[in-house]
Task: inverse folding
């Protein structure tokens, strides 16, 4: 870690992992030499993204792709377009992705990438040109058997379509398996947009079942109102729960009778905020503060990192919250996790709870390789099986290595590490 002294997100994540795997190494001393190799990405690619804005001015951003670990299969992980993107954030997300992908049981390695651009400030034409310039450099580093990027914050199926379009033009042939999260017409899997949000709710339902509870009648706060959040809300409601609050980067909304997801999606789709949505609703109240200070039984942070700090965690505990499951990557800070743990609030780590998206991306790779298209019902059934098996793997490792089947954070780290360490050991020192 001394090699990169200013990478705080990445260091915090590595430290968390190291704390969890001590008991695994006692049982498997043969994996000890894997640890140092695991913390060093196989490859870090940093590149210039030049493009021309609508005024004719040449602009430049930084693109990054971290190919972290390919022991289990091709690097797999999303592309994030956001002003906050830097090497620290992408290494943190890439490190998480290695273990998340292992937990899905699919044969995929871990990677992550993105650019420090704010897509919301770009016109449609500018964003397409940006994606094409980004893809021009990315193309030489990816491929169906090498590295298979998908979307993440700021990168949806439209942007993946544009990136894939430029890639296809450069390589000169069709290779749909080189990207996932594509539009359906280009070979995108049914249910890929829904998968992370739906998967997080399937995982949450398993957590609640262990407590003898379910979502029927539960009051749920879901932060964010982007891809993951909206589909998580949809599945919460389909499971009998009420979404009593949500948020976006501009504020939050409380609506005790339940958020209307279709109405929210429409407002967000037109570039509006949750406050604009609240204005149209008789029982909704907008605020500048966090959604996690609301009364709720279940909290699903689905927006971004560090949304739940000590203050929000204490509020959740005071309100008697049963379970917090991470739909986003790293939304609950280490201090907040400690507060939840001490209060006995169930915690579902993102590594496991939000792995549904990458799991369906792996199913998209399978469909593209076999030139098949599976129905939404078929993919949903497989997703539920994958999330259930991931939960079992995590709970069993928590019990075996940490003596507590509810300690899913340590369980996820231990179970993910075991699968990657076994693959790395089998490959020899590479
Ligand atoms: P989107 O860009 O679609 O949505 C992000 C949402 O979070 C937006 O509504 C945004 O607000 C909101 N937001 C951003 N910052 C804040 C903040 N500080 N407080 C409250 N809300 C905020 O991204 P996704 O839904 O795709 O991703 C969300 C999270 O899930 C990320 O951490 C991502 O890494 C993770 N994830 C995503 C996967 C996927 O399949 N998409 C897979 C696994 C993890 P606004 O609408 O105002 O922009």
Result:
């Amino acid at each position: 870690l001394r090699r990169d002294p200013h990478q705080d997100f990445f260091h915090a994540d590595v430290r968390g992992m190291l704390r969890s795997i001590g008991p695994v190494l006692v049982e498997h001393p043969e994996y000890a030499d894997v640890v140092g190799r695991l913390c060093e990405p196989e490859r870090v690619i940093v590149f210039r993204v030049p493009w021309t804005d609508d005024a004719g001015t040449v602009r430049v951003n930084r693109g990054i792709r971290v190919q972290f670990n390919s022991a289990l299969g091709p690097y797999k992980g999303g592309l994030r377009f956001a002003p906050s993107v830097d090497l620290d954030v992408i290494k943190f997300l890439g490190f998480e992705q290695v273990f998340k992908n292992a937990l899905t049981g699919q044969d995929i390695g871990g990677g992550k990438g993105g650019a420090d651009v704010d897509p919301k400030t770009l016109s449609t034409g500018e964003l397409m040109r940006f994606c094409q310039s980004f893809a021009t450099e990315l193309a030489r580093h990816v491929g169906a058997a090498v590295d298979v990027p998908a979307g993440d914050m700021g990168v949806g199926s439209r942007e993946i379509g544009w990136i894939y379009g430029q890639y296809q033009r450069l390589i000169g042939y069709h290779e749909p398996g080189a990207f996932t999260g594509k539009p359906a017409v280009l070979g995108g899997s049914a249910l890929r947009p829904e998968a992370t949000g739906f998967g997080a709710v399937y995982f949450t339902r398993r957590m609640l079942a262990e407590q003898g509870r379910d979502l029927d009648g539960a009051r749920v706060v879901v932060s964010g109102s982007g891809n993951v959040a909206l589909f998580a809300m949809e599945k919460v409601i389909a499971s009998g729960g009420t979404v009593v609050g949500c948020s976006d980067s501009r504020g939050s909304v409380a609506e005790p009778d339940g958020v209307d997801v279709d109405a929210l999606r429409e407002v967000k789709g037109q570039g509006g905020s949750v406050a604009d949505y609240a204005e149209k609703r008789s029982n909704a109240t907008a605020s500048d503060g966090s959604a996690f200070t609301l009364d709720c039984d279940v909290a699903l942070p689905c927006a971004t990192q560090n949304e739940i700090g000590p203050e929000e965690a204490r509020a959740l505990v005071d309100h008697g919250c049963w379970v917090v499951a991470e739909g986003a990557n790293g939304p609950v800070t280490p201090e907040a996790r400690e507060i939840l743990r001490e209060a006995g609030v169930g915690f579902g780590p993102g590594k496991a709870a939000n792995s549904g998206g990458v799991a369906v991306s792996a199913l998209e790779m399978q469909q593209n390789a076999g030139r098949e298209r599976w129905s939404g019902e078929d993919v949903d059934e497989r997703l539920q099986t994958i999330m259930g098996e991931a939960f079992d793997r995590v709970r069993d490792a928590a019990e075996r290595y940490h003596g507590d089947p509810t300690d899913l954070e340590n369980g996820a780290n231990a179970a993910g590490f075991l699968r990657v360490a076994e693959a790395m050991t089998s490959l020899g020192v590479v």
